[in-house]
Design a protein that fits this description.
Pnp Oxidase, Chain A; alpha+beta; 29% strand; seven-stranded antiparallel β-sheet; extended; 7 strands
C-alpha cells in the first residue's frame, strides 16, 4: 500500500505545489506499492519512549491550529501497541485549548525531536480521551505528585521519519553532563598515563 503519511499529507493542493516546485518525485509515495507508515516498529517504540518532550498540534472549530509543547520524564509518552501511543495529561494552567480543540476535531499531529542525533519523527493520529484511572492502569509515567486529569490515547494513522537536514545539534543538560563526565574520565586517564610515563622515564635516569 502507499505510505500512510503521503495519503494524509499529500492532498491535491500539496501535490500541485510539488509539481510547481519541481518536486514531483514525491508522487512515487502514492504510486509505488509499499508497506509501513502506520505501524510502529521497535525503532519507533525506542525513539518515542526515550523522548522527554514533544510538540503536538490540534485545530479549533474555527480552523486555527494550536501547537503545544508537552514535556515530562523519559517514558511519559508510551507505545501501547503498534498503532497506539498514550500519555497522562496532567493539570496545568487550565486553558484547555488542546483539549477543547479535540472535542470537536479528534485529529492530532506530533513532532518528536532528538536534537543531539538530528532525528525527527512525525506522527499523525486520532485521539480518544480516557479517565485518569486508565492512565494508572496503563502504567503511564507521571511527574512527582502532579494530578492526572485524563489519559490521552492516540491511534496512529501515519508516521514519517524526516530528513535530518537543517536540524540544529543541541544537548539537554542531562546529555551535556554525560558528555562532560566522559571527557573528565578520559582526561583523568590521559593524565594518569602521562604520570606513569614520566615515572618510568625517571626510573631509567632519562627523565
Amino acid at each position: 500500500m502507499a505510505l500512510a503519511f503521503a495519503e494524509i499529507a499529500f492532498t491535491p493542493a500539496v501535490r500541485a505545489q510539488q509539481e510547481r516546485g519541481g518536486a514531483g518525485q514525491y508522487a512515487r509515495f502514492l504510486s509505488v506499492e509499499r508497506t509501513g507508515g502506520d505501524l510502529l516498529g521497535e525503532e519507533e517504540r525506542t525513539f518515542v519512549e526515550a523522548r522527554d518532550g514533544f510538540y503536538q498540534a490540534t485545530v479549533s472549530e474555527t480552523g486555527w491550529p494550536y501547537v503545544q509543547f508537552r514535556g515530562g520524564p523519559r517514558g511519559f509518552l508510551r507505545v501501547l501497541d503498534p498503532q497506539t501511543i498514550a500519555y497522562a495529561d496532567l493539570r496545568g494552567n487550565r486553558q484547555y485549548i488542546s483539549m477543547g480543540n479535540l472535542t470537536v476535531n479528534d485529529r492530532i499531529s506530533l513532532i518528536l525531536m532528538d536534537y543531539a542525533a538530528a532525528r525527527r519523527l512525525k506522527i499523525w493520529g486520532r485521539v480518544r480521551i480516557d479517565g485518569p484511572e486508565a492512565a494508572k492502569a496503563a502504567g503511564l509515567v507521571t511527574t512527582g505528585g502532579a494530578r492526572v486529569e485524563r489519559m490521552v490515547r492516540i491511534h496512529v494513522a501515519a508516521f514519517d521519519w524526516n530528513c535530518p537536514s537543517h536540524i540544529p545539534r543541541r544537548l539537554t543538560v542531562e546529555e551535556a553532563s554525560g558528555a562532560w563526565q566522559a571527557l573528565k574520565r578520559e582526561n583523568a586517564a590521559l593524565l594518569a598515563e602521562v604520570r606513569a610515563l614520566r615515572e618510568a622515564l625517571a626510573a631509567t635516569g632519562r627523565g
